[in-house]
């Protein structure tokens, strides 16, 4: 089974944690136009954290030097392409981004608290498998990205609070 890694980037805006999501380019062959975290397939046996950091730099132009801390989160699997996705929480200390327009159309900042306040919805795929989605005005986060968030929200808040960089109320 192929393995991929993603960064679950968080920045503090006005003392509140925000998740950074991307809208994948509609030109991509895999998951075009979908909302995701920066990430991709592991190359040449590299460590999964290395994959996630490399992809973050390639897709949104954030250097690993701008990461205050990283924490491994629970793995999930994409249901359509059957890829193991290994997420890593990363708190960023700068809000400077350079988008690779071949891979990313736009970055989206979503208050972490919105995911706590919004109940995920179960959706049935054509294959008969179930996944989840979050619906916000003008934004739907579904599939592996939504499952990473739902399965890790408490741990993300705990790690951010323990970090001392963000006050979680």
TrEMBL record:
Keywords: Hydrolase, Magnesium, Manganese, Metal-binding. CDD domains: NUDIX_CoAse_Nudt7 (cd03426). Its cofactor is Mg(2+); Mn(2+). GO terms for molecular function: coenzyme A diphosphatase activity; metal ion binding. Residues 1-138 form the Nudix hydrolase domain. PROSITE patterns: NUDIX (PS51462), NUDIX_BOX (PS00893). It comes from the Bacteria. Gene3D superfamilies: Nucleoside Triphosphate Pyrophosphohydrolase. PANTHER family: MITOCHONDRIAL COENZYME A DIPHOSPHATASE NUDT8, NUDIX HYDROLASE. This is NUDIX hydrolase. It comes from Kosmotoga olearia (strain ATCC BAA-1733 / DSM 21960 / TBF 19.5.1).
